[in-house]
Amino acid sequence: xxxxxxxxxxxxxxxxxxxxxxxxxMATLDCIFFKYFAKNFLIDFIIFFSLIIFSFIGAIRWSxxxxxxxxxxxxxxxxxxxSTILIFLNLLxxxxxxxxxxxxxxILLQLIVDFLIYKYVKNEVFFLSLRLPVTIIILxxxxxxxxx
Length: 148
Hints:
This protein is mainly alpha-helical. Helix content is 76%, strand content 0%.
């Protein structure tokens, strides 16, 4: 009996995006179980890494066209600007729990905006398979670091 071989293509972008949650998971596991790194180090790491993710999410909508849509430009630029401000606040020893909470809410707001884009722009294919699950994993790990 011949069984057809099913070749499943792995989308490299989706694979790399899911790999992006591993640092969050590893930081949380280290803080809970291994205690290899100091808690303050892990909190700083979570702040800086989540700001990178926040900027990347904004850049997804960045449009390089001759006549760019102002909303796309702002949606792509504002996260980088906010990230820069939050980096300075973190370096100035601003309340780290407040910074993480702010980043948490900003990523949640981005998720809501992306959901609205997904709902009203029918050519969005990555929201349910990538954006939603990855963001939920990130937010759950950030919520843990808000509580410690």
